[in-house]
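Q: I'm writing a short explainer about Nitric oxide reductase for a general audience and would like to include a description of its predicted shape. Could you first generate the structure from this sequence?
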Amino acid sequence: MKADAKKIVDGVYWVGVLDWDLRDYHGYKLNGTTYNCYLVFGEEKVALIDNVYPGTSAQLWGRVRDAFEQEGREFKIDVIIQNHIENDHSGSLVEFVKKFPDVDVYCSQMAVAGLKSHLPSLSDFDFKTVSTGDSVDLGGKTLSFVQAPMLHWPDSMFTLIEEDGILCSNDAFGQHICLSERFDYEVDEAILMASAQKFYANLITPSSGLYLLKMKELGDLDLVSKVKMIAPSHGQIWTEPAKIIGKYNEWASGKCKDKVTLVYDTMHHSTTKMAQAMAEGIMSAGFEVKMYYLHEDDRSDLVTDILDSKAVCIGSPTVMNNPYPSLGDTIYYLTALNFAATTYKKQAVIFGSKGWGGGATNKLETDLTAAGFEIFDKFDTIYIPTEDVYDKCYDIGKSLVESLKED
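A: Of course. Here's the predicted structure. Afterward I'll give you a sentence or two in plain language.
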């Protein structure tokens, strides 16, 4: 198919794929995404940085051909950089190796076994491994490599196009959005940052400490000052790197807003009414509240708000001595994301309605503590809440905020 390449700077093109249809990926909801690939023309060699999900390569091939036509160059790729082994980055590698059998493929040592596992036809392929400090000279364009394990897989690495200061950052600094525009300044900043926060919350949070160490390493190597543009594997290209780097530094260090995220589910609306009363108490003390009703709302959205909240309130009825089932999904996800990886320990309030013996709040206390939250208060009531119960919920919400203000 025909598709246009987008020139980023002289000799560097975006040649990725717009996946307009994707709605669920990495366990969270989205409205399409991009698989970003970059074609770099040196005087002697041409390099493709990453490729795309299996079955989506028609756009990629169209854009690659268009870039070659724009450059007036012979259609030949000499080098492929495989920053990451996951299918949305490597799924079309076999096609390119077949088309250009003499191509050199560079990746991290950790990536080799994964690529051969994902792509059995390349089990005997001679991958060239690189580490931090290694580089490939294309002739007037130098690609330098930085290992970035667990940002967000063990094999991940970054590639810096040195002469242009373009950091191809793989999944770091990405956003799962699909827009016709390619650059950050072409998109409403609030929408862009919200997408970047959702991406960080759902994918990068467990590696917050590793991110901070990596940024220190890049600073020590005097690489941060060289970055003029960040070209991630998903979403918009950052022409003002300081903006997204600053946000990542905030999220990784646990900097929070004056905000509480309140998450609940209910059988007969008792827990709903308690949640509403607690929200009133939180607001009365001057904090923002974000409400999530698990019957309808998606966990990927609630964790996005939890990322920059100082506390979370979790409400559940008791069902057979345990929390409502939807809470189990949420707690598993919170445990996996490990918000304790950031330096700020978030407070938690647990509440709900029970029929007789209860059990939900005790179970949630155990699980949230294990997930790295500090329990501020726990409260449940029998059957239908009374006005006294609503007052108690209001007071807990207000007391929580007053306590947070003292921190």
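A: For your explainer, you could say: The domain at 260-402 is CATH 3.40.50.360 (Rossmann fold).
Q: Perfect, that's easy to follow.
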